[in-house]
Amino acid sequence: MRLGMRERAMSGTADQFDSEKARMLRFAERMIEERGDAVSRSALAGYAGVPRPRIEAMFADDDELFDAVVAGWFGDHVTIMEEVLASDLPPNRKMFEFFARRFRLQRERFRANPAAFKAYCELGAAHFERVRSYVDLADHYLCELIAQAQAEGAFEGLAIDRALSLINQMVLPYTMADVLTYMDERLSEEKLGQIVDTLFAGLSAADRGARGLSGLRAA
Amino acid sequence: MRLGMRERAMSGTADQFDSEKARMLRFAERMIEERGDAVSRSALAGYAGVPRPRIEAMFADDDELFDAVVAGWFGDHVTIMEEVLASDLPPNRKMFEFFARRFRLQRERFRANPAAFKAYCELGAAHFERVRSYVDLADHYLCELIAQAQAEGAFEGLAIDRALSLINQMVLPYTMADVLTYMDERLSEEKLGQIVDTLFAGLSAADRGARGLSGLRAA
Question: pTM of this prediction?
Answer without folding.
Answer: 0.88
